Amino acid sequence: MLAVEALTKRFQGLVAVREASLAVPAGSITGLIGPNGAGKTTLFGMISGFLQPTSGRVLFEGQDITAEAPHLRARRGIARTFQIVQPFAGLTVAENIAVGAYLRHPRRADAVARARAVGRRVGLGAELDKPASSLTVSGRKRLEVARALATEPRLLLLDEVLAGLNPSEIRDILPVIRAIRDEGVTILMIEHIMQAVMSLCEAVHVLAEGRMVASGPPREVCADPRVIEAYLGKGAAARLGAEAADA
To answer: How many Cβ atoms sit within 10 Å of the Cβ of residue 195?
Structure first.
């Protein structure tokens, strides 16, 4: 469904992403992991159209969308969440979700009905008529997912949707993510919580210092020496191997 081909993004003298490539099959949950500052959110920005790449291409269902604006990509069926959740505090939860629903449903009654259905789908049914400002961190994360889902995407980009949640909240939201995929939405997710990545993702891509250093099934990727060194530093893979041999 999505193919990223050798994307590079330069910010003056800084190369944030360098010739990164990945593929996301339709119907999958695919992970994008890497240490802080690796360029993951910058890559999401280029996929969703909020940033223009310096070079490389983005293909959606075989069509080159590299130069398209974000709203045109949204119409194609690409939606994203943002790492920093910023709901419209003066609106209710349902009204926040309806902002996304207007993309497909210009009539207010239809947009609100769609918003309420999406809110219930992500576990916000009891909060729909409350101010968005009253939501907990977990509720705000669900609202961010709901606003993106309300656009009726076929590809959903989740940017650290589990960040800031406690173990119980993470456990509760994992089935929501699986259900979204099971209902026909392909997912590409940035995540730092490896337990969730191992549980949800069929394939994982690893970005480090702007470069794609590994791709494959989660368990294989997590055992890759290049990935261990990206997270723990140079020589870490050899040290861990020596410690395992001594044990």
So the answer is: 13
